[in-house]
Amino acid sequence: MTSAPADIPQTLQDLLPKWAHFCLYAGRFVEEELGIDLDGRRVLVGLSGGVDSTALLLVLHYLSKRVDFTVGAAHLDHQLRPESAGDAAFARSLCENLGIDCVVESCDVARLAEERGVGLEEAGREARYRLYAALRESGGYDYVALGHQLDDLSEDVLMRLIRGAGWPGLSGMPGYDPLRALIRPLLLIPKSTLRAFVTHVGTGWREDASNADPTMTRNRVRNEILPLIEKENPAFWQSVARLWRIGRVEQDFWDGLESGACENLDNTRLKSLHKAERLHLYKACLDRLGPGQALADTLFKLDEAWREKRNSAVFQFPGDKTATITASGVVFSPKH
């Protein structure tokens, strides 16, 4: 399907009560758990045309009729699949039927990956986020909404465990990333619920065959490892949701303690802190430099080097970030 039906429900009142309550739940999650008031705001939806982002667009569209905020959409054609033009056409059609402004752009992601020396997944993510940031500025959007859901969160938790993330980062991606103004309103909702919702509304959605590609680690986690875990514990998804909530509470606690300048941590300050506080402070400083998950093992090695006064030792972190031990403390900087 490359076009969305025109005769779809337009308001919460047009939905079955079950699905109207579902949309309201997502709105409460944004307001109560993420601490964001959408009233009077402008929200840009990253719209791939898949079931997750289609559900997100619909939910925010219906909520915007109840709470006064504006919804826009952005679609990026990655030029990786013959069907990608159909994805773009679907995104345009869906937004047109809902009366939502939609920007469609294209990027040769394969070429970008080659130029940057990274994988296709990372290059695609970089291109999308660059588009979102540009549209946020040019379109005056307050937030960028992404369609990550509970299945994605479960994958992310396992991926972080595989990579060696620490706590509370191990609890998964945040629902709100203030640095990039990203929000994830559907983060604690299972994908199966989103499929049922979009089926009820009747818009259809696009399928991406690359999601079944076993050469990609995330796909192996999704299609091979997670089904085994769910077989052992059918309530695994609820466990992940609880873990996420616990992690957010602890992250809020640490964020409250981590104040002040972060580019240069002096020895006097570091010596006054418990090791746990230093490790969290290192992570906070790295997070402020931009995306990229700091691995727990590297943070421990950084702290060990500081305690042993290994001046000039440099530690590399994901996202092209570095930490350098100096005579006066630890200096954090983006890699140039």
From TrEMBL:
Q: Which UniProt keywords apply?
A: ATP-binding, Cytoplasm, Ligase, Nucleotide-binding, tRNA processing
Write out the annotated subcellular location. Cytoplasm
Molecular function per GO: ATP binding; tRNA(Ile)-lysidine synthase activity
Protein name listed in UniProt = tRNA(Ile)-lysidine synthase
InterPro entries in the record: Rossmann-like_a/b/a_fold, TilS/TtcA_N, tRNA_Ile_lys_synt, tRNA_Ile_lys_synt_N
Reading the lineage from the top rank, the first entry is Bacteria
User: SUPFAM superfamilies in the record, alphabetically?
Assistant: Adenine nucleotide alpha hydrolases-like
Q: What is its EC number?
A: 6.3.4.19
State where it is primarily located.
cytoplasm
Q: Where does ATP bind?
A: 48-53
Which GO BP terms apply?
Answer: tRNA modification
Check the record and name the PANTHER family matching this protein: TRNA(ILE)-LYSIDINE SYNTHASE-RELATED
Q: Which Pfam families match?
A: ATP_bind_3
Biological function:
Ligates lysine onto the cytidine present at position 34 of the AUA codon-specific tRNA(Ile) that contains the anticodon CAU, in an ATP-dependent manner. Cytidine is converted to lysidine, thus changing the amino acid specificity of the tRNA from methionine to isoleucine.
- Family, per entry: Belongs to the tRNA(Ile)-lysidine synthase family.
From the UniProt record, list the reaction(s) this protein catalyses: cytidine(34) in tRNA(Ile2) + L-lysine + ATP = lysidine(34) in tRNA(Ile2) + AMP + diphosphate + H(+)
Q: Name one GO cellular component term.
A: cytoplasm
| HAMAP family with a match to the protein in the record | tRNA_Ile_lys_synt
The tRNA(Ile)-lysidine/2-thiocytidine synthase N-terminal domain covers 43-224
Its domain description in UniProt is: The N-terminal region contains the highly conserved SGGXDS motif, predicted to be a P-loop motif involved in ATP binding.
